Amino acid sequence: MHAQYKDHMGDDLRVVDAARVSFANESWYINEEYVPDKNSKHFEAWLRYALVNVRHDRPTLSVGDFGLIQFLAEHGHWTPFAHPQISLRMKAPVPIRTQCFKHKQGFVENEESRRYISSRPELFMPEEFRSKAANAKQGSSGTHSRSTPWKAFYKDICEEAIDGYVAMVEDGIAPEQARFILPQGVQVQWIWTGSLAAFARFVRQRTDSHAQGEIQELASDVNDILQPFYPISWEALTR
Ligand SMILES: Cc1cc2nc3c(=O)[nH]c(=O)nc-3n(C[C@H](O)[C@H](O)[C@H](O)COP(=O)(O)OP(=O)(O)OC[C@H]3O[C@@H](n4cnc5c(N)ncnc54)[C@H](O)[C@@H]3O)c2cc1C
């Protein structure tokens, strides 16, 4: 299970420009002649951001543009955050793929099709089996006391089903039907393209402690990939 970077478009400045075009204005990263507005309520936060950027030789937004991004995020003005787009290559077991696909607005996905491929599917192995949570309708608690034998059981049963799938395909059964025998633990891959706004919503919801552990891990990977490309917008949208 993983999220891998493919490519991305835009940056924090794109968000600012999308907002400022309302007034036919445009912004630039600051240069050495720039004098920040020390009276801005965002000055101290901006200074921390600017100092880190200088150290890493990265382009820096003005304090006004930094503050604008905070304002847009705080007031739910999401369209400027829909201009930057990111493509990822994802791999996850079927139920986690299904959870990802519940996020519809601002995303497109194309996934591998077991109508057209008949290679042996890869099984997702959980690191451990967790116990059912005692007082919750959903979720889980710590490691189950018999996690290790259940992992061996899971692997045996699933690999047997996958062997059955391979045998059916080798005997000429259509892959689009043979796939019905596959367990939920097989991994599927998809290309996932979405806006900065959409991925931030996904990460916000799926890093929450109520989300399933596996999708929390995946959302955390997505977080780590996207944060460096849009540091100000990402922080404002996901905090
Ligand atoms: C912990 C957890 C448990 C969950 N359990 C279940 C479950 O048991 N069963 C299940 O089916 N799903 C479940 N979900 C999925 C959940 O119901 C959402 O479908 C999913 O989280 C996507 O969120 P979203 O609707 O905000 O995203 P999107 O579909 O991307 O929508 C983004 C936003 O656009 C707006 N929007 C979208 N569609 C419309 C519309 N038709 N009309 C008006 N506004 C719209 C809403 O403001 C929405 O928040 C669960 C999610 C979580 C995080």
From TrEMBL:
Origin species: Litchfieldella qijiaojingensis
EC top class named in words: transferase
Pfam families from the UniProt entry: Thy1
Known EC number: 2.1.1.148
Protein's recorded name: FAD-dependent thymidylate synthase
Signal peptide: none
NCBIfam families from the UniProt entry: thyX
